[in-house]
Amino acid sequence: MFKKILIANRGEIAIRVARACREMGIPSVAVYSEVDRDALHVRAADEAYLLGPAEAAKSYLNVEKILEVIKESGADAVHPGYGFLAENAPFAKALEDAGITFIGPPASAIDAMGSKTMARELMQKAGVPIVPGTTEAVDTVEDAMKIAKEEIGFPVAVKASGGGGGKGFRVALEEKDLKDAFEGASREGEKFFSDGTVYLERYLPNPRHVEVQILADTHGNVIHLGERDCSIQRRHQKVIEEAPAPEWVVDEETRERIGKIGVDAAKAVDYVGAGTIEGLFSSDTNEYFFLEMNTRVQVEHCVTEMVTGIDIVKEGIRAAAGHELSYKQEDVVLRGHAIECRINAEDASMNFAPAPGKIGNYKEPTGPGVRVDSGVGAGGEVSPTYDPMVSKLIVWDADREQATQRMLRALGEYEIEGLKTLIPFHTALLQTKEWAEGSTCKELLEDKKWLKTLAFPKVERVDDDAPEKVTQEYQVEVSGKRFDVKVVGEAPAYAAAPAGGGANGAAPKKRGERKKSAGGGPDLLESPLQGNMWKILVKAGDTVEEGQLLCIIEAMKMENEITAHKAGTISDLPIKEGDPINAGAPIATITSAEAPAG
Q1: What is the mean pLDDT of residues 538-551?
Q2: CATH class of 132-202
Q3: Which residues contact 156 (CB under 8 A, 6 or more apart)?
Q4: How far apart are alpha carbons 434 and 229 in whole angstroms?
Q5: Which of 42, 222, 488, 590 is the S-S candidate for 216 at Cβ 3.0 to 4.6 Å?
Q6: Which neighbouring-strand residues pair with 223?
């Protein structure tokens, strides 16, 4: 076994790996950026080393610096977690050349699965079903149009060859959409993965996203741990996952079939460790298509652990150390049902805009069947530099219906002060008939009217010299009976949002900030989030319609489209491409056209 493991990651996954190391009696090493000096993952490990500034390229993605820390700490293995360098073949190769074990698959497997076009070709040769489309990159829009018209048909999906996590994925419903989809997917592929090549697939309008967890060792043993249903997504990024899939979606015969597909795919690349075969499943035709392979531990691995009792992180460490898997396929039994809700610092009512910030009081739910994998605590911060995840809330119970009720109970107990999170969104969605029926909930997640009902209480704005007023919720007791009471009054001196029962909210703005930003009245459009102004699509003097795209803000690895809140003329546009922008900062002043006289 290893003498010391360096964890090349941050947040909840770094803590998860550190805990596994401690239980296995292996010392662990944390790394951190300057902004993460006080982060919980730094304290979770036995040692910790500073990598560099907050910017990921200068810290968590700085391979040269990480290699220096490995040497200085004496670590003989590296666990990459997920994200950052987890699927970086050159990093795995650099470790191999340095005599350090990469806790994951060989670089050759990462390389083969990292290119979606190469992976599709490889899977096709291995007899694994793939979504109809190209197995080679498509060079031009003209080539894409020809292939779409003659071979695939519309709608067609345009995907970046190195894409993942929803990045580099665009859909052309009709011919007129193809140019924008092609250029958008290529642009994101270049931006996020340094690879602008794209390929085409038949677009399946409403398939289920069903994935298979696999484990493999260096002795040729490969098993699967059943499936996870990750169909509830927005912007092609998962928000709720469950294991197993609802029984009316995946029965035992289907589970065995797609499990074999997962095992065959892993064997085709000589896989080692924990990995996931992602696929698209059509309930109508019972077809299952290979989508991609994630050559790492998944964010949602927890639900599989809850229903199988198998520690996926530990098994990955053992496999990397040359040990045989602790389980055979016949040992894997699925018991009960598990659900995971991603508690992100996002505002669902604002089209899931990232909402980074500092955390006040913080209290996680507990009780039977409840698990929280978190990277923050009271007084912590969700930085705009990294992804918006606060934690993962996972529950287990005997069946899906009971697990849903347990999740609702746990969401109600979760207290996160000072942040807007997805807790109200999860609470609302899990009470819909769509969820109860096992729908993908796609229509709900695209229903802006429904999403707006999840808006957080607004700070009431009166004149700027008056005391600020906020709405706060309290519980009072009268004659032995509790009542929920809303009080509208002056903001407390600490200016933090009220907590309790999962009712998360953002702290009100300071009076000076309000005065500055409120000058334009209803004409002023303010930034709903903090980030960087990536693209501006209008100019001062332009006439715009309500809902028209004005600009795109990049925040927490996501592009966020900002649209006009009203129709009119842009009389002021104080933003510049490439500049940082804070939440509440002015984006544009839109003046309504005056009504004609008479």
Answers
A1: 92
A2: alpha beta
A3: 133, 144, 148, 171, 172, 178, 181, 200, 201, 202, 203
A4: 15
A5: 222
A6: 215
Q: What does the DSSP assignment read for 48-113?
A: EEEEESSSGGGTTT-HHHHHHHHHHHT--EEE--SSTTTT-HHHHHHHHHTT-EESSS-HHHHHHH
pTM of the complete model? 0.77
Please, are residues 40 and 13 in contact by the beta-carbon 8 Å criterion? no
pLDDT of 406 reads 98
- CATH architecture classification, 5-103: 3-Layer(aba) Sandwich (3.40)
Residue 243 phi/psi, 5-degree rounding, is -140, 135
Q: How confident is the model at residue 559 (pLDDT cuts 50, 70, 90)?
A: confident
Spatial distance between the Cα atoms of 547 and 590, rounded to a whole number of angstroms: 12
- Report the interhelical angle of 63-73 vs 89-97 (nearest 10°): 30
Whether pLDDT at 344 is above 90: yes
Question: Looking at residue 133, what is its pLDDT?
Answer: 87
Is the Cβ–Cβ distance between 552 and 535 less than 8 Å?
yes
Q: What is the predicted pLDDT for the residue at 283?
A: 81
User: Residue ranges of the domains in the chain?
Assistant: 5-103, 104-128+209-335, 132-202, 519-598
